[in-house]
Amino acid sequence: MGTRVRVINLLTMVVLLALPQEQRAQAGGSVAESRPNPNQTLAIVVNRSNPIDNLSFSELRKIFMGERNHWANGHRIAIAMLNYGQPERRTVLRQVYKMDEKGYEDYVLGVMFRGDVFVAPKTLTSPTILRKFVFNAPGAIGYLRSRDVDETVKVVRIDGLRPADKGYRLQIDEPSVAGEPE
Amino acid sequence: MRRSWIARKASRHLSMVLLLLVLLGEACVALFVMRDLGRSYATAEKMYNGSVQGLLRIGDMQYDAQETRRSTLYALTTNDGNLQVMYADQSRDADRGVTQGIAQYLTEARTPQQIQAGRQLAADWSDYLKVRDEVLGLILENSPKEAVQLDLNSGVLEFDRVRRDLNDLKQSYDAQASQQLATVARLSRASMARLTGALVLGLFLGTVAIWAIQKSRVRSAMQFAKLQMDFVASVSHELKTPLTAIMTAGENVRDGLAFNPDHLFEQGSVITDQAHRLMKLVDQVLQLSATREAKLAHALREVRIDEVIEDAVRSTRSLVEQASFTVEASVDPNLPWIIADVSLLSQCVQNLIVNAIKYSSGKRWIGISAHMNWEENAILVSVQDRGIGIDAEQLSRIFEPFYRSPQVIAAKIHGTGLGLSIAKRTAEAFGGDLTVSTELGVGSTFTVHLPVAKDISADSVERPAAEKGARV
Q1: Chain B nearest C-alpha distance from A116 (Å)
Q2: What number of other Cβ atoms are within 10 A of residue B24's Cβ?
Q3: CATH code of the domain in which B52 resides
Q4: By CB neighbour count within 10 A (0-12 exposed, 13-18 middle, 19+ buried), where does B294 fall?
Q5: Which residues in B lie closer than 8 A to residue A75 (C-beta atoms)?
Q6: Which of A75, A133, A139 sits opposite B85 (nearest CB)?
Q7: pLDDT digits (tens, 9 = 90+) for B62-83
Q8: Looking at the structure, do residues B175 and B287 belong to the same domain, yes or no?
Q9: In which domain, by residue range, is B264 found?
Q10: ipTM of model
Q11: Residues B324 and B288 reside in one and the same domain
Q12: Which residues of chain A have a CB within 8 Å of the CB of B85?
């Protein structure tokens, strides 16, 4: 399954690179210099009671890697991950963890075994449940497509950028899963 | 006299009217009682429903509060984040039910105690929800020990306050419902008592009225029977006297006691006079019977009243002259015609003239007058005498057949007691009436009221400008 997805992703990138630059922008390909597609940006969300508004990408990575366990207000950080196989999860693994699924699983088992991290990230089945989790847990942090964000959670800027801003780094570089509108 | 006749008529139906009034009054009372009863029940039912609904709402709130806490604690039983979120959702759904219930209670609260209790519950529930949110957060953040600690330290206490508040509200509704039930019972008892009282009173009054009606009927029947017996006795007595005289004269002739022509003439005269008297009596009885059963053979035609008076005066002329009476007649000119039988109407007036002669004192004068009474739309024919007058106590009975007052009997004034009765019934047969005004020792005035036919009363008759007198 993982190999098939990687192959598809690779083929998609090849096709996109072969296109003229204008068409590539329309297709949502390499978009560093264009405005991000809201359906393809990944928002980092926290509980509304959390005072934090901005994180650097490196802080974000530390949090997700379990190198930082508590927020400034003392709440324990609870990481919420979407279920295996979802584009958002793959994007976070690739762009934040810089790992694949197998590497992530090994990493989590390792840090748990060593006692570096006491609590494994929560794995939730859908963006809706993830949003509710973040709403209910003051120390929660998770990620959602921008279209799945509502007022029950708070979006954190990354390196001072909102998901809609140019240069925002967390872009989902693969299509949505079947049945999900873009 | 006319008033007393009306009073007699009215008294005849008084019991019936009383009964109807009682029934009407009873129906009104029953309607009022039923209305009161209905209102009481409606009010009490409304109040009671409010209490019951309040109790149900409190029950729902108690269940939702328990569900809020239960769902929160269920989240402790799993490490699965999805299940924990589901339990958190259930807890929040349940707490919304409690919050809405409190808001509704506060909207409907009326008394200061209710408002105070509602506010206390709202505050305690809000405090518990804060703790609940923290507990949920700790559970989701994978801090179950801290969550349990927080729940034991604060959640249990806060929830216990909420539970007590809800119990207080429930007891308040319980007390209110009990009080309202008692009110319903009291209102019902009072209404039933009123209804029963009204029915018993109505039954009693109705029974009294029926008893009075029956008594009146029995009395009427007895009076009628007595009247019949008096009638038979009077007729027998009146028949016996002339028959005795005829028998005596006949026996005198048979036994040869009348032996010369003068004696024979005298006995013959007795026989014929008494036979005439007998004939007259029989005629009167028949006439009375005919008037009583309304079987008068009317020869109705348009009649002028002066024609009737002249006929009556002419018919009684010999009697008047024998008694040395003066008759003065005064008839208004241009009186309207009436529809009547001249013979019967004349007989009616004759009876009054004969009556005036019989019961006169030393003053031998009779006045006859006729004039139009526009108010009654009737011609009034009055026969006035200056005789002995009639005792007020006897006035109510003088028109009864064969009735003769004790004073008349004592004065040995002969008569059958039929004249006034026949005159009155005759007047009534023509749609009129016979009334009397009298003063003891001064005299009496009998007045025949004769209604004028409608088609000739207003249009064809000039109202009299002056009276025209006539002396007979």
Answers
A1: 16
A2: 10
A3: 1.20.1440.210
A4: exposed
A5: 137, 141
A6: A133
A7: 999 999 999 999 999 998 999 9
A8: no
A9: 225-292
A10: 0.73
A11: no
A12: 124, 129, 132-133, 136
